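In this section we turn from sequence analysis to structure. A common task in structural bioinformatics is to predict how a protein folds when a small molecule is present, because the ligand can shape the pocket around it. The inputs are simple: the amino acid sequence and a SMILES string for the ligand, here NAP. Study the lines below before reading on.
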Amino acid sequence: MGKSIRWGVVGTGQIASCFGGDCSHVESAKLAAICSRSEEAGADYARRFGVDHTFTDLDTMLASGMIDALYIGTPNTYHAEAADKALDHGLPVLCEKPMVMTVTEAERLFAKAADKNLFLMEALWTRFLPAPAKAIELVKDGAIGDVTGFHADFSFDMPYDRDHRLYAPELGGGALYDLGVYPLNVADMVLGPASNIESQWIAAPTGVDQRAAMVYQAGDVTARLECGFDRDTPMMCTIAGTKGGIVLAPPFYGAEEVLLARDTGTFASMAHAVRQQRSGEMAGVERFTYPHAGTGLEYEIEAASRTILAGETTHSKMPPEKTLEILGIIEQALAQPPVDTITLW
Ligand SMILES: NC(=O)c1ccc[n+]([C@@H]2O[C@H](COP(=O)([O-])OP(=O)(O)OC[C@H]3O[C@@H](n4cnc5c(N)ncnc54)[C@H](OP(=O)(O)O)[C@@H]3O)[C@@H](O)[C@H]2O)c1
């Protein structure tokens, strides 16, 4: 292996395109090959991101000797098969969220990767961003006193389209798997694992969850988390404390800015202003800004590449336990029948 990881990518859609562009910002990563179901889409991706090798068969790309690791950017229900194949070819894997659809499947793949001494990580990019890390540091340093509340929402309006992967059960659609992973991961990052969770969900016409709400209890703190693709919400994360509050600027899952108010009155008006998308200069508010060089995936790409180069199989910011913990919460939530109206709060 050289000084950079030669990544092979499977899938040429939205997130694979972000990955392709963001590799150019990472010294330890090189975009080496693309695998698409269609020659045209593969050729187009190769042209857009300067990739030398295109494939239409995953096994052929994995056996080509041209890549050191696989990035999986296909729909959710295709992740497990691609990860299995890469591990069988002795290659490390960075796999889009949700890594797979069940805890059992994730446990099996992590065991297989460990057995083969290979890196396998869910690509939860938010865990590698500097803005959430700053928010956590501020909380730990007591900047807002004791944490008293937490809220994170990730919803947008997606008109009904049976074929879109969010609506399609066969592609692993649903709000919790695609969007809910973010409020859940950020709650875990800031507050730690939940001691208790209550949840409710509303079904889309296809039966997948179109909206979900959770009450996430961590110690004394009750966090309210929501996700959905039936309406637009501010997509922000607020952390309230006895002495002030913090906002992870929208969209919180890719935040480039942390806002800090050191008194609770200022926090309330700051949160309101951000919700109204009027977050210019505000008296009493400190801003910490971390602009992405690319779309924000560069941090996880660098972390994954360096971990693989170091011969390690997991990264402390997104260890297997966290994938299993969050998948477990989602599975439990969806094991309940849907409701007509969310009444959790
Ligand atoms: N990290 C993030 O911020 C983020 C954001 C969005 C999505 N994601 C995750 O990334 C994955 C892909 O999402 P996306 O939004 O990029 O989806 P997308 O735009 O629909 O792209 C998915 C790609 O997968 C390939 N594919 C293989 N089998 C397919 C099938 N049966 N149906 C449709 N496409 C198929 C296609 O590429 P070819 O036609 O070239 O084969 C397609 O372009 C999902 O797991 C999603 O949860 C992550």
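The pocket of NAP is lined by residues 11-16, 36-38, 41, 73-76, 78, 96-97, 123, 125, 165, 171, 178 (CB under 6 Å). As an exercise, try to locate the residues that line the NAP site and compare them with your own expectations.
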